[in-house]
Design a protein that fits this description.
Helix content: 25-40%
Mean pLDDT: 80
Oligomer: single chain
CATH topology of the largest domain: Rossmann fold
Strand content: 15-25%
CATH superfamily of the largest domain: P-loop containing nucleotide triphosphate hydrolases
Number of domains: 3
Largest sheet: 6 strands, mixed
CATH class of the largest domain: Alpha Beta
Order of helices and strands: EHEEHEHEEHEHEEHEHEHHEHHEEHE
Distance between the termini: 44 Å
Low-confidence stretches: 1-15, 45-55, 77-88, 214-226, 458-462
Shape: elongated
CATH architecture of the largest domain: 3-Layer(aba) Sandwich
């Protein structure tokens, strides 16, 4: 089948139409640090290890009342330990080609290196406006090597320190002289979807299927993606963001700070997502990492679609109903989640996954009227009265939905101890069955009230 038709999916992040400023240079000159400095927050992983950035990491930023798209690229000339140098170079080439302005970053302490000359030659052929930036100028006095950098052919270098923000205001002045920022910010996406899973489960292939092209590096080498990468795509005229995250493995097997930061970013992506696509490798057994992720998604009350990927490799030996039962047994915390069987390589299940994610997001925003909620909750408890450990019956005086995303229901009761975990599980199952929240997590909060104390009525709408 190939990749999905681009009539359904947008091409790449630049769909927002903002001027693109690409940050380019050899490895370990501080490109990611400068992106984070200009953005005013941590976007890219920063680590002394050369070659940490592999994919194109992009973010819209507001600078002095205007908007730009900042693009961090991998180090040009990197010799990658996982033999991904060609793929990294391809990502850099695409980033450079899409740029309206290039920040050519060098390390002022090193002077001109052979790789700096290679980068300069590549940029001269491109013909895009370039600002030469001498990073790591960590003292106001300047560096004696700065003068020789003019031999690279892009005029005097602007000395900055991304770490200490020295020279950054002047750099921003020059950027805005070279490229006109947009007065209109990016169109907010209708939904943010985080793709999570253990290593080598197919998240990047899935993301590329959405983007309609090679937006992130795909390799059979586990751990290829190190950072979380936001990719904008369009489906049915609706713009959304897919967050491709680093694959997670057992913490006992993490061997570097980069892996720790990658997991941290992946978990943060779950927190900022509206819906999670939890990818499971159908050719492998459910493991500790899968269970850890399911528990975390549940704790964060995130709507989730369980995507059984690589089904084309497993379907000859598996039945979908049996596999669904297996997932429910192994991941009971998210038993409410719908399951999609997919193959990111040929596009099977990709559109369906997004359509279901849209439905889950819709469910998460529903607000039930107080009258209807109390009617349904009252019927549930009338059929199964809870009791405290001492035998005292539990009573529900009043229930109110106090929030959406996730739907949050506060129950005012006589004795909280009567509503123990098993009874709460019963209530949640009933709510999933009787209210329009059939496939999303629900937060229940119990508060003790006397019979005569009536809580204030919550509004029926946001």
């Amino acid at each position: 089948m190939g990749l999905p038709d681009r009539g359904h999916f947008g091409h790449n992040l630049y769909i927002m139409g903002l001027p693109v400023v690409a940050i380019v240079g050899r490895p370990n000159v501080g490109k990611s640090s400068l992106l984070n400095c200009l953005a005013g927050r941590r976007i890219s992983i920063v680590d002394p290890t050369a070659g940490v950035t592999r994919d194109r990491v992009s973010t819209p930023v507001e600078i002095r009342g205007g908007w730009l798209e900042l693009l961090d690229t991998g180090g040009i000339g990197i010799v990658d330990a996982d033999n991904l140098s060609d793929q990294i170079s391809q990502q850099i080439e695409v980033g450079i080609a899409s740029a309206d302005l290039i920040l050519f970053i060098v390390d002022v302490r090193d002077g001109i290196t052979t790789l700096d000359k290679l980068v300069a030659e590549k940029l001269r052929r491109q013909g895009t406006p370039v600002i030469l930036v001498a990073n790591k100028a960590d003292t106001p006095e300047g560096n004696p090597n700065a003068g020789e950098l003019e031999r690279l052919g892009f005029g005097p270098a602007m000395e900055v320190s991304a770490l200490h923000r020295l020279g950054v205001p002047e750099l921003i002045d020059t950027i805005l002289e070279k490229v006109a920022s947009s007065r209109e910010g990016p169109t907010p996406p209708a939904m943010k979807i985080a793709l999570v899973g253990k290593r080598n489960v197919g998240k990047s292939s899935f993301t590329n299927a959405l983007a309609g092209g090679q937006r992130v590096i795909v390799s059979e080498t586990p751990g290829t993606t190190r950072d979380s990468v936001d990719v904008t795509f369009e489906m049915g005229g609706v713009m959304m963001i897919a967050i491709d995250t680093a694959g997670i493995r057992k913490r006992s097997k993490q061997v570097s700070d980069v892996e720790w930061y990658s997991e941290h970013r992946a978990l943060r992506s779950i927190r900022r997502a509206d819906v999670v696509l939890f990818l499971i490798d159908s050719t492998a057994s459910i493991g500790t990492v899968d269970k850890h992720l399911a528990a975390y998604i549940s704790e964060e009350f995130k709507p989730v679609v369980v995507v059984i990927n690589k089904w084309d490799l497993a379907k000859a030996n598996s039945d979908q109903d049996d596999y669904g039962d297996y997932i429910t047994r192994e991941l009971p915390e998210i038993a409410y989640a719908p399951i999609v069987f997919s193959s990111a390589l040929d596009g099977t299940g990709v559109t369906q996954s997004i359509q279901i994610a849209q439905e889950l997001y819709r469910q998460s925003q529903i607000r039930i009227s107080t009258a209807e909620l109390n009617k349904v909750m009252g019927e549930m408890i009338a059929h199964a009265t809870p009791h405290t450990p001492t035998g005292k019956p539990g009573r529900l005086y009043y229930a109110s939905q106090v929030a959406t995303n996730p739907p949050t229901i506060t129950c005012f009761v006589n004795e909280i101890s009567a509503f123990e975990t098993n009874f709460q599980r019963f209530l949640l199952n009933q709510i999933h069955e009787k209210l329009p929240y059939s496939e999303i997590p629900i937060r229940l909060i119990f508060r003790a009230r006397s019979r005569t104390e009536r809580p204030p009525r919550a509004p029926d709408r946001d």
